[in-house]
Amino acid sequence: NRLRIVVDDQVVAEHQRCPGRHQTMLDVRHAIDLLAFKHRSVERAEIIAQSRLPEPLLALRERLLLHDRARAGRIFVAVLRLLLTYSSEVVAECVSQALVCGTLDPAAIALLVRQRTTPIPPAAPLLALRSPDGMQRPQVDLARYDLATLAEVRP
What is the pTM of this model? Predict the structure, then answer.
């Protein structure tokens, strides 16, 4: 029960089919460029209201509208753009983490997403300390010291 759209032998979209008549299933990813152009419509856009955005994204939108209504649309669209590259689950987790930390910055949210999805590179191996050829490591003579007081004994 999926709808697949193919252009020139390449799948350009694939969606779940609506189960009944007179229903709409909206995907916000298809309207991100339009929302970026008409960023003030973010607070009343039907695609936002009827799409099934994760709860943390809706909470972010509400916080942005309360914090800075004039820039809320642009900031929210910047976060929505992450949905074009990353799964909604990962973006939602990172938005939730950002809200707990008290930030609404889309760059901070993008950083959290990259940190969560980028594998950690293996640690560089430690170099073994070796003495150069021809040099000997100094030998420590512990007999010179009184181990009870850790003071050097003079003959």
Answer: 0.63
